[in-house]
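Lab notes, practical 5.
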Amino acid sequence: MSDDDFMQESDQEYDFDYEDDEDEESPDVDVENKYYNAKQMKQSSPQEAIAEFLAVVALEKEKGDWGFKGLKQAIKLEFKLKEYDKAIEHYAELLTYIKSAVTRNYSEKSLNNMLDYISNSSDPADMACMERFYDMTLEAFQGTNNERLWLKTNIKLAKLWLDRKEYGRLTKSIRLLHQACQKPDGSDDLSKGTYLLEVYAIEIQMFSETGNNKKLKALYQKSLRVRSAVPHPKIMGVIRECGGKMYMSEENWKEAQSDFFESFRNYDEAGSLRRIQVLKYLVLTSMLMKSEINPFDSQETKPYRNDPRIVGMTDLVEAYQRNEIHRYEQILESHKAEILSDPFIREHIDEVTRNVRTEALTKLIKPYTRFTLSFIADQLQISVPEVQEILGFLILDKKIRGQINQKDGTVEVASKSDVERMESMHEWCKQFENLWKTVLSEREGYKLDADPAIAAAGLVPTQSIGPIGEEFEGRARMSKRGLKGKGRDSSFLGH
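Output from the prediction step:
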């Protein structure tokens, strides 16, 4: 098309149909008013509110938004009041709205919120109703092409089993999810990488809680190789947190610190409250590493230095780095509820405490060669068996040279100068022994010549080591020639 033709066509007039506001049908005011009146009665009169919400559904001639909203509110109230049969009945009716009455996005959001609401219950009596809700939701999506919502619902169900530690059911859910995220040939479908990472995160949490480190490590490495997904930061936070705990169980403090830092950064980006607990793990790991770098010096962690929720760990790491054992013990005692409430921290804090006491003990006994166990116990404010245990580790690790007299409760430690002197003497003796073997055992020095004439003249060694030996051998040969020319009365070397 030429530019002239385009200009001619653009000059044509187009008629647009404008809707007149006066012709628009106004919403049913009675239905809307009844809905909001019912919401006001939710707290004071929940039973009357349920009746009003169901009346909103009855007032609508055709299924629409107000009926959908009314059913949602009624179901939540019925579930809260333990009226499970009515809640299940009305939830089945609610699922009929998702096909045509409401938009796809609105229905997905509403159903996700509904499942989140019932999953937050900790009452065991609610479990049967919860399972029925999930089963009905999954059945409703089997006849549709909404695979995304099917995956989301199954992932939500798997998280529910994980929270309730029902690992048998969780394993079945994970198996179904893996099948849904695979191609027909059994390989992972990269187009579903985001969902696959969520499944990995749930499975990694299960292995972490059950202590199956072998499978955890393999799956953890596999999850880090998924490059096709753009996961939510919270998912990566979960994966990295479990990785850090795995490395902690292996006493690989460096890798654990790296993973906990990445987990904290992801949780912080996602706005998850889990970041505070992971930050405590990061502080714990830095102490186990005996790092002199304060973990709160980084740009990401600095804003949380004075956070009341973590002030105990902040003070603890400062006392640890300064080797202030008494302050460390005081902080641990005063913040016991805050620090030791987490089972993971409680499991590893003893190792940190042992390190602090070991450093303090080593520093305390440095000027002494003999001391009592009770003296150390009084100075460190710990029991005598604990002192004996720490000294035992130090002696076995050869960090100190000493002996413990359990009968008298005393310890004798060899001074550093004595140890160095003994080591020097041992080295000197070793070198002297090597020289002795070389001169007298491995070489032919100081051996008699085989010539009978030399032996008869009383001449001993004709062979020796080095230049002196060669000179001695030469003189011996000259002497032999002299003996042949001058007779037996001639002497050797002036004799």
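Observations recorded by the TA: The CA atoms of residues 71 and 94 lie 6 Å apart. Confidence is low (pLDDT under 50) at residues 1-26, 445-449, 460-469, 478-495.
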